[in-house]
Design goal:
2 domains; three-stranded antiparallel beta sheet; 14 helices
């Protein structure tokens, strides 16, 4: 089976489908993925659903099951099958009990969410799906009737009947020294402004790549994140917002326009300047290639999203509510255990030590996060 890209006729929107062993689209899955595209889900989201449903379809194929007749017990077996090494999934190779699981609990739960959404879509469209897996109840907000529903006095159940416990994973952050090292390793103003923007505003990489000049209000020192279709496929994950930024970031933007951007005619802030096609919106693969080069140069194995985590942490350490960047964007803020730790770092009393809380940074590093980062280059 194969996950394959498709282009929607007319709109040119990128989407994805799942091809069976006969190289023909799997019709129920294809219709569901087309529905996700029609309601505006991002191509990356549709692609993730396609890969998850490809795994599910491959499993029911091995079991010889009809997808409409799958039961809760079958889904439990699917979960166990997902955790087998790739070589053991076909059943041709015995798997030792000591063998490590192939995927994490979070990945399994994500795949279950895709399967659950697929069956919900099918049930809404009148498909007769297995009663023990899901029975969609119309009216109100809707909900799943899980296994043993008859003993729960008719109450609706919003969660999945099967899920794995996921260990608490605290967000990774960058220290001031690491952030400064990444900025100073950038030899071009465009690259430096890209990371400085994420550091200052807490925006995502895709939101930065979709930024237009009209979104930067220099006099007001504000950056607007606007959901729109972009030529490079970059997307604002959810909702628009306006974020206040500092004067140093605006000056860095002006330096970038004056020294590198020049007279290139483009609406996009981040564009190809030294590569072809010149003036085209900078793509995420090109930006991530820069990340890989900076990892090798600095020795810091960072991800662009860490700048967003660091901004949230920095604002919580300082006691500033990051509503402008996070409230309308559905971003998961720092977990309660970390907020308690940060409260201690700010001098609040609490029942646990930082070590007991398992926080990913110490009190000292919390305080040093409030030291300023030099966004502009040092004069030569």
């Amino acid at each position: 089976m194969l996950v394959h890209p498709v282009v929607v006729p007319g709109s040119g929107t990128l989407s994805w489908t799942v091809l069976g062993d006969d190289d023909v689209p799997v019709v129920p899955v294809d219709r569901f993925l087309a529905y996700l595209t029609d309601i505006g889900r991002s191509p990356n989201t549709v692609k993730a659903y396609a890969h998850d449903l490809k795994d599910y379809w491959g499993w029911i194929g091995l079991r010889g099951l009809d997808w409409r007749e799958a039961r809760l017990e079958d889904v439990g077996e699917f979960v166990a099958w997902l955790q087998l090494p790739a070589a053991g999934r076909s059943g041709a190779v015995a798997v030792l009990p000591s063998a490590a699981t192939a995927v994490t609990a979070a990945t399994v739960n994500r795949k279950l969410a895709a399967v659950s959404a697929f069956y919900a879509h099918q049930a809404r469209n009148g498909a007769a799906v297995g009663d023990l897996l899901a029975a969609w109840k119309t009216g109100g907000r809707g909900g799943w009737k899980p296994f043993l529903h008859h003993v729960s006095k008719g109450r609706q159940h919003r969660g999945r009947a099967i899920s794995l416990k996921v260990p608490v994973k605290l967000p990774r952050i960058l220290t001031v020294a690491e952030t400064q090292a990444i900025l100073d390793a950038c030899t071009r103003l465009r690259d430096r402004f890209f990371f400085a923007l994420m550091h200052e505003s807490g925006c995502r990489a895709g939101e930065a790549l979709g930024l237009r000049h009209e979104d930067i209000a220099a006099a007001e020192r504000e950056i607007s994140i606007v959901p729109r279709d972009n030529a490079n496929g970059a997307r604002a994950k959810s909702g628009g917002r306006t974020v206040p930024v500092g004067g140093e970031l605006i000056r860095l933007y002006a330096d970038y326009l004056h020294e590198e951007y020049g007279g290139i005619d483009s609406d996009y802030v981040f564009i190809n300047i030294w590569a072809q096609p010149r003036g085209q919106a900078w793509s995420y693969p090109a930006a991530y290639d820069l990340v890989l080069r900076l990892r090798a140069k600095t020795g810091i194995d960072f991800d662009p999203h860490w700048f967003r985590h660091s901004a949230a942490t920095r604002w919580q350490v300082s006691g500033v509510a990051p509503a402008a960047s996070f409230s309308s964007s559905c971003e998961r803020t720092l977990p309660a255990v970390q907020r308690a730790a940060l409260g201690q770092a700010r001098g609040h009393n609490g029942p646990h030590t930082m070590r007991d809380l398992g926080c990913h940074h110490l009190v000292a590093s919390c305080r040093t996060m409030m030291q300023p980062v030099r966004l502009q280059r040092m004069p030569t």
